[in-house]
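Hi everyone,

Forwarding the result from last night's run.
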Amino acid sequence: EVQLQASGGGSVQAGGSLRLSCAASGLTFDDYAIAWFRQAPGKERERVACLSETDGTTEYTDSVKGRFAISSDNAKNMVYLQMNNLKPEDTAVYYCAAPSYYYCADYADDYDYWGQGTQVTVSS
């Protein structure tokens, strides 16, 4: 059984940093891509970053390029999202998710496994 558990959210001021963690079980990153999504109130869930170890690729939505970094620790089966220079518009609930395949998919509907969300609040 695949399980994902996200943690690390919190409240920071604009310009600050947070690191989100996702503990994965029941899958290996060789077989599954792993992504971070976020959902702000009244908005659709959007993919923020995705990592495919099989493809050797990372993908980011334009608004976080240069500020966020997705990484993995295979030994611990953990995935991280380092978020720097946070902005108020980054405020959202963040989720880690995995599709049932090794490549990154664009849309939430393509992902079969989800962790619970972790709230990130950035104040100006």
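Residues 23 and 76 are 8 Å apart (CA to CA).

Cheers,
N.
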